[in-house]
UniProtKB/TrEMBL annotation:
Domain of life where this protein originates: Bacteria
Domain KilA-N, residue spans: 1-136
InterPro entries in the cross-refs: KilA/APSES_HTH (IPR018004), KilA_N (IPR017880)
Protein name: KilA-N domain-containing protein
Pfam families: KilA-N (PF04383)
Length: 232
């Protein structure tokens, strides 16, 4: 096993069938909730498409039928995909989950570089944008949302999933596929809080107002923390 150092981070590199595989786990270990980055990246439809292209070029045993099934499943909020599930279903070779002392997620150097590039771009774009949710208008508060997932979407992003799709016809997936790591953390917290509020019999309008205030408060705290450096 070899080690490389990037931005003072020690990253493991192992050899599999005479090819270098880089630890994605090490790449994000110095980032708060860094493992969520790997999960978020893997469930993104664009990522799956990239992995499928790579496997199609370098892996004769790649299961194209399973890959197509996964592509059809991707893009929905309920969709999840672990490295183990991906490798088991498609017989992939480009990315693996390794157990033991030096365990974690490892990827062929081509894929590792793509992971670093994508997440660096997500980070820099997040810095450019105002990620603090805006306070909702009276019209938004008075509107009734049929889907509880959209209550969270409006509280965080100020728009429903359908409104986002209409405004971004060139993008694949859904609004949450393009969320920052901090937004995903906040959304996870809000889902738990919303469940409690529903059990307490709080109306949707009241919950929306509360969740929007929580989103503003939590995102302000998260964004004020020192921004972690991702690999360039």
């Amino acid at each position: 096993m070899a080690k490389i150092y990037v931005n003072n981070a020690e990253i493991s590199v192992i050899e599999i069938e005479e090819k270098d595989y880089t630890s994605l786990t090490d790449m994000v270990k110095n980032i708060d909730n860094g493992l969520v980055l790997i999960e978020k990246w893997l469930r993104n439809k664009n990522t799956i498409e990239f992995l499928g292209i790579w496997e199609g070029m370098y892996n004769l045993d790649f299961d194209e039928d399973e890959y197509n099934e996964i592509m059809n499943e991707a893009g929905f909020n309920r969709f999840t995909l672990s490295v183990k599930q991906w490798t088991k279903r498609t017989n992939s070779r480009g990315i693996i989950a390794k157990a033991g002392r030096y365990g974690g997620t490892y990827a062929h150097k081509d894929i590792a570089f793509e992971f670093a590039k994508i997440n660096y771009r997500i980070h820099t774009e997040a810095i450019k944008q105002n990620l603090i949710p805006k306070e909702l208008t009276k019209q938004q508060i008075s509107y009734v949302y049929a889907n509880e997932a959209d209550v969270l979407n409006v509280a965080m992003f100020g728009k429903t999933a359908n409104e986002w799709r209409c405004g971004n016809p060139d993008k694949k997936g859904n609004i949450r596929d393009y969320a920052s790591i901090n937004e995903l953390i906040c959304l996870s917290n809000m889902e738990n809080i919303n469940a409690v509020l529903i059990n307490d019999g709080i109306s949707q309008t009241e919950r929306l107002i509360k969740l929007n205030k929580i989103a503003i408060q939590q995102m302000t705290i998260l964004e004020e923390q020192k921004s972690p450096k991702l690999l360039k």
